[in-house]
Amino acid sequence: MSAILEVQDLKKYFKTPKGALHAVDGISFQLEEGKTLGVVGESGCGKSTLGRTILHLLDSTGGKIFFEGQDVTKLDKPALKKYREKMQIIFQDPFASLNPRMTTAETIMEPLMLRGGMSRDAMLQETAGLMETVGLANRFANAYPHEMDGGRRQRIGIARALALSPKFIVCDEPVSALDVSIQAQVLNLMLDLQEERNLTYIFVTHDLSVVKYISDEIMVMYLGQMVEKTSSEDLFANPLHPYTKALLSAIPVPEVPCKKQRILLKGEITSPIDPKPGCRFAARCPYAGEECHRPQTPEEIQPGHFVSCCQARKINAM
Amino acid sequence: MKDEKQLLNIKNLVVEYRTDGGVIHAVNGFDLSLKKGEALGLVGETGAGKTTVAKAILRILPDPPAKVCSGSIEFEGEDLLRLSEANMHRIRGNKISMIFQDPMTALNPVETIGEQIAEPVRIHNRVSRSEARKRTIEMLEMVGIPGERYSEYPHQFSGGMKQRVIIAMALACNPELLLADEPTTALDVTIQAQVLEMMANLKKDLDTSLILITHDLGIVAEMCEKVAVVYAGEIVESGTADDIFNHTAHPYTEGLFDSLPRINSTARRLRPIKGLMPDPSNLPEGCKFCPRCPYAEEICQKKNPDFTETTPGHFVKCHKRKGDA
After folding, report:
1. pTM for this structure?
2. Which residue of A109, B42, B183, B238 has the fewest CB atoms within a 10 Å radius of its CB?
3. Looking at the complex, does the CB of residue B153 fall below 8 Å from at least one CB of chain A?
4. Chain B residues 66-125 with CB within 8 Å of chain A
């Protein structure tokens, strides 16, 4: 299988009065069609910026993004519009991402209208079909967002993202604002859609249990950089980076008696503004040493398992 | 069992919100008891009425529209609902205090964090400013913030640090009972781990009783010995953590567990609860969970089940499970 998406050394810096904020700093990966890459990390690690930069909603500072072999960073505006039909995004907050003055049907139909070339009847029919696909009853077609609960609003967001039959969707924390029972309904819907339509997802979230459930591969980010990437099972069974280990140990597990050995990290995330070269996790890392002050590059320690830690072998006795 | 005395005893609490759009039945006959030193997890989804109960205990519900219609809340043998406002003042922030969910909005942005922590100390303990300051610095250090940051403002702190400030404020007067409303929901997991660890240690050291309101069953498993599951303003199941996690009896609790993606499971599909929470202004007549329940029978639609003790200390509100016990 060939990769539908390839990202090479992607960088996104924001200018701030204090210096350059390195939100995404040299991320590279490939993603095969029909698969899901989970991107996890804590607030401020650059995971949402990564998703948005890949879609070119934010201009990249450096690096290349190949979608079906085409470098999207080089596209002009009309070409980019065409390309956007194939790439969509589902946003985090179903309360903020919908226009409060548009009904369900209008919101879902808007992408079809913008693309043009369809009669109004055809568009209405398509909209009804999309609503059925995401499990929204027809009676909500003329309802406004404030009349609906979070789960249903998120279904509108999904229907809108599907309207142009995209191949690839960036899902930016799509279930974080939902209650568990509703979250499970939406996650199941997203998996069903992926199977039916052979969709490729990048699933950005801070929730490690959710990411394990939905992803084929997982990338862990820390301060704009990838610290570890491997298959979903492997990451949970065999985390190699000290940050991943701490992150996994921090998840509260719903089991009694609770038998958990927790690695407590000291301190908090450091500033992403003009970071020093070297491992960005070193300040909080229990294993940090002299060699950690050199720049770290991802290394394939086991087949398909990438780790950016010069001490990974030593820590894991490999 | 030792003769531990009941610290808190809520009986048949009913709270309504009277709005122009109709009456919202937020809490419908709530019974809860807590012994000294115990930690109870109050679990349920958005709109189940968890926060309303906590606010009713402190009597900080906005009235109107909120109205406590009936019931009693006994705290150390006194019914809080009958106390005068002046007496209630002496309890709030002193014997009972609350940690609110969102550390970003719970602090006053134009007052230093030190002054904010010192305020309840000065009000309740009638101590001098310098003594209050000393106590505040002690509290700050206890929650892991250097005392030198006394004169800084909330915007100079990160989310995790702000939540520590709020915890310090809540514990400043050594309360008997701490109500924690989703104390770590706004925090990242590694910071959440730090805050939970700290709360568990403080609770042990100060022997504070705790009601922890959360939707996260993982946090409950870690922090609480007793659990009450809330649905549509009622407790549907309560018992020890072992009862709830390992001998789950109510179909709603079962549904909650099945909805959770687990890090140690390999299932490819979750089994969510069908449908949505009922509209609290228009609750179903019989069992509130009946429309979503996979085991529902005729009786469930007609009669609201009693809260029945199945094994000692394990209560369930369900027609089906009564026979099984």
Report:
1. 0.84
2. A109
3. no
4. none
